[in-house]
Amino acid sequence: MNMFLKTTLTAGVLSSMLMSNAFAAPSETPPAFVKRVADNLIVRLKADQSKLKNPAVVKALVRQNLDPYIDSQAFTRTVMGTYATNQYSTAAQRAQFEKNFRETLIENYGSAFAKYSNQSYSMRPYKDTGSKFPVVTIDFNNNGEKIPVSFQLADSNNQWKIRNVNVSGIDLGLQFRNQFAANVKSNGGNIDKAIASFKPDAEAAVNKK
Hints:
5-stranded antiparallel β-sheet
């Protein structure tokens, strides 16, 4: 086989691979993904229920069963808002924010899961709107009260990940963005200080009236 033909075939194969990847999508449906993550999380919560007062156990549980499914980069951009642009922050500052934000999210989720006492959930019917960011809603049953939680998803390397969460109609990403903007202001516009001191408060966000 001559060199021209080899080059042509190689280029054709690479082009086909790139095209197939470009149009690839997660094989799992959005509701199936959310159900799998929720079910696995509840199984672990039930198995470790006697240990949930131990912060280290709860953090490990979150790291293993929820953290891998969070699109922290997308969440970071949402929460930083305009401060995620080159005009206000550097790539290093954004990376530090993402690291800090991820850790505080783990603490927030850990505090919530530590209160777990055999709550169940039910999934609402899913409607595929063709959106780039599909939303799946489930109702957590807490002592007879239904708490709707909506997960906005994004396709990350052919796998669904959670890019934002809405609890009882409260957009957590937006509330955290407001909290961060207020923190930047209280630090006189110093981004480094704002990033170092920012602690997203999920409870305050959810209870926002």
